[in-house]
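In response to reviewer comment 3 from the previous cycle, which asked for concrete evidence that the modeling workflow produces usable outputs, we include below a single protein chain processed end to end. The sequence was submitted unchanged, and the resulting structure tokens are shown without manual editing.
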Amino acid sequence: MFKKIIFILDDEQAIAGIETLADELSLYGIQVRIIGVPLRNKDCINDDAWFENTPTLYITDNPLYHKWLRDNSLPVIVYLHDNNRDKNFSYAEYAIENIDEIEYESLKLAYQRLTGQPWTILETDRCIIRESTVDDVDSFYEIYAEPSITQYMENLYPDRDEEIAYIKDYIKNIYAFYGYGMWTVLDKAGMEVIGRAGISWREGFDIPELGFVIAVPFQRQGYAYEICRAIIEYGHKELGFTAFQVLIMEKNKISKALCEKLGFAYVENVLLDGIQYDRMVKV
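The workflow returned the following structure tokens.
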């Protein structure tokens, strides 16, 4: 995690509020440094004083420095205020206002996203649920290699490189945009990937869908119920969802029983891509 924030600011008035943020960040051991601009030229950024061996998050109100930092794969957030709203920050992934209202947790999540680190979504008694990464792909193939897994759900791409490309796009386009999706499930005891679970949207339906898969060695031990119950609660409290659906193949009696235990009730039978599903809803 980052240990320093460097502000690169054009506007002297923009400094207001940073002291309040710096006081909060000091509680987490975060150093705050302010560099005033305009600097003589962009090469000033190459000053070694900017680049210690300390994970650093940059915040700037200057489009030139934002572009340079971004082009050099450094995590940077735009600071918007009254005197720079007419500037071009079209490539910015994150922007903030009212610095004195910004919290450490928000900056931490932005830093993780900008540096390609997965967000930890929640924990249960036995599991950690976090965003998926490319490093999870091999574990996914091991899980999906069991015939009973793909009997009732779509398989991974046959080509590993295609699956990796899919995960990369998912991180960029789903996690970054929605802030949720299908996640990776880890067993706390051995930090082993034991499945996937999460919330997504299916085209043609107006409520979010719960999805889950648990590796065969961890089935029939209550993991799926533990994980799904926690995700539903997270969806209610953190995402504001009031209802969820599941689509389960007609012969998948084990998953149906689990969903009934979670409070889902049968609504209708639907045909998708030539396959019959029981649609169940929890409100």
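Residues 80 and 168 are 29 Å apart (CA to CA). We consider this sufficient to address the reviewer's concern, and the full set will be provided in the supplementary archive.
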